[in-house]
Amino acid sequence: MSVAHETKKPSLRNRLLRHVLLPLALTWLLGSALVVAVAAYFTQQAFDRSLLDDAYLVASHVRSNPDIEELELSLSTQEMRTVLFDQTEALFFAVLRPDGSLLAGHAGLHDDSLVESKGPTFQSLDYQNRSLRRVTIHRQQPADFYVVMAQTTTSRDRLIQRLLVFSIAPQILLLIFLATWLQRAIEEDLEPLAALEKGLGQRDARDLTPVPVSASTRDIQRLGQAINALLGRIADSVRAQREFSGNVAHELRTPLAGIRALADYGLRQNEPRIWREQLEGIAQSQERASHLVDQLLALALADEAQQTLKQKPTPLDELVREAVLRFLPRADAAGVDLGANDAEKATLVLGNGALIEGILNNLLDNALRYGRAQTEPSRITVSLKEHLQSVVLSVYDNGPGVSSAQLQKLSKRWAQGAAGEALKEGSGLGLAIVKSYVSLMDAKLHLGNETPHGLRVSVTFAKP
Known about the structure:
Blueprint: H1 2-8, H2 12-59, E1 62-65, E2 70-73, H3 77-83, E3 91-96, E4 102-105, E5 121-127, E6 130-139, E7 145-152, H4 154-201, H5 218-267, H6 272-304, E8 312-315, H7 316-333, E9 336-341, E10 348-351, H8 353-370, E11 378-386, E12 390-397, H9 404-409, H10 418-423, H11 430-440, E13 444-449, E14 455-462
Parallel strand pairs: 9-11
Antiparallel strand pairs: 1-2, 3-4, 3-7, 5-6, 6-7, 8-10, 11-12, 12-14, 13-14
Helix pairs in contact: 2-4, 5-6, 6-11, 7-8, 8-11
């Protein structure tokens, strides 16, 4: 059903032709009808004027005969034939008394009652199976009488038909010429669109490179740009998915292999003590794998959020207090002094609450893992510092810190400091996630060592 429905849809070329030619043809036909109507009106006026002249000519030859005290027509039969001669039309006349009786001429030209009028009256009638146009005039000198002059309408009908033909025929030819020209012009303008359709139809599903667009109009150019922008977004999404799947496959292989090795070793033993040791190892490996998956998912979501992120005024002080309270039990269990400075004052920044929460989670998690002091009590501090147009969020510790060389690449994926490499924990994604989140919110990330030792990570947010 859908295929049949698609085949019934008209092409864009035909739709454009129809939308252009139909209104144009209707407009031209209406214009032609108006022209013909005006021409017919003035043609009728010209013929009527000639007919009226003949009526006045006949009326001028009506005389009063004193001998019989009656009106008479002074023209002879031969003279009347000369007056009424026409090469194409037949002329009829009648001179009538006021009571309607015939004085001279043809009977039956005026059957209805005669009414006095200030001017000539024109009417159409059928006479002897002919269509006539007549005019009636009323004269009062030398006495009351009426003259009726009638003429066949062959010439005027033929002239109106010729006007109609010569008005419509050229416009029909012009419409045909215009339709041919428009068809070629529309085909040339739509050729880039057909080429674009052909290029997309023949393209492999894995080919997401930009489509070459040969645009003849701005609309087709914008369409090509929109398609290429869409292909670019799809390519970014596919690349992120491939990277995510590759990262998961690569990074989960080691903990899963470790879990399998621990399970196999435990199954070969019979002592409950060894089973417990293996189960504890499995639990630790599972925790590491779960943490890794969460970080990989966070990176994938960060890549995906590049097109949909909406920033708004966000209370940074509330997010800091909530994060400190959330990590406080873990810090107490590890013997770390976790605190916050200047987080009591209401502080708004332009950002996204979920991303800022992710930044705090990763920074505090990294600090608890790798930022513990070796020779003094461990401390981790979250601080807020407000400036004129910005707010700086900092998380710093008094741990061993990192070298200058490691500091340059620490925010890259899979990069770890010396503490992380020594502990064999994590995967080097925490700061990479922070960097992605910071970039999404148009904030600034800065990493530096504390004095005398420790690591400080600062994020600068803009004020709303």
